[in-house]
Amino acid sequence: MKKHIDTLSSFLVGLIFGIGLILAGMTNPAKVIGFLDITGTWDPSLAFVMGGAILVAIVAFRFAKKRTTNFLGGAMRMPTSDMINKRLVIGSLLFGAGWGMAGFCPGPAITSIGTGNPKAVIFVIAMIAGMAIFELADRFLHQPRKAATQ
Fold first, then answer.
1. Alpha-carbon dihedral of residues 58, 35, 10, 68, nearest 10 degrees?
2. Least confident piece of the model among 14-18, 52-56, 146-150
3. Of 91, 87, 69, nearest to 78 (Cα)?
4. What whole-number distance in Å separates Cα of residue 116 and Cα of residue 16?
5. Strand-pair partners of 75
6. Buried/exposed 29-61: b ≥16 CB within 10 Å, e otherwise
7. End-to-end CA distance of the chain
8. What is the C-alpha separation between 41 and 39, in angstroms, rounded?
9. Using CA atoms, how far apart are residues 109 and 15, in angstroms rounded to an integer?
10. pLDDT tens, 37-52?
């Protein structure tokens, strides 16, 4: 029964999040690119969306840090690292470049698939392929090396 409640609550939270992305205009690549184009015809409306999200997150994290379990009784897992390293900076730059070129980031792209946007489908396929390539490369680069002479 608990698994069904977890699944249903996850679905409802995702649905509400997706509806919020649609209402905010985050699923419209032209609007997103207009927001990112600060030297052209800049559309500042998404700054209010981001500002609202940041305010909600600040309050939510303050409460979450004081808890040991989530609202459904599961373990509360909070990020523990605050280290800024080369991987984080490079990943952030790649994320920003992709967002600026496509007008999508992961959440709005997945939401846009539900609206039938073919560009979102292509973006999500490319995103999944990129994630798979990263995982394979990461495993290859960090696997223990066998000694050349045994």
1. -20
2. 146-150
3. 69
4. 18
5. 69
6. bebbbbbbeeeeeebeebeebeeeeeeeeeeee
7. 53
8. 7
9. 14
10. 889 888 898 899 889 9
Q: Model confidence over 63-115: pLDDT tens digits? A: 888 888 887 788 888 888 889 999 899 989 988 888 888 899 898 999 999 88
| Cβ proximity of 104 and 112 under 8 Å | yes
- Specify the 3-state DSSP secondary structure of 69: strand
Instruction: Give the residue from 129, 130, 112 showing the smallest Cα distance to 121.
Output: 112
Tokens representing residue 23 in the block = 């209402």
Half-sphere exposure of 145 (CA within 13 A, CB side): 4
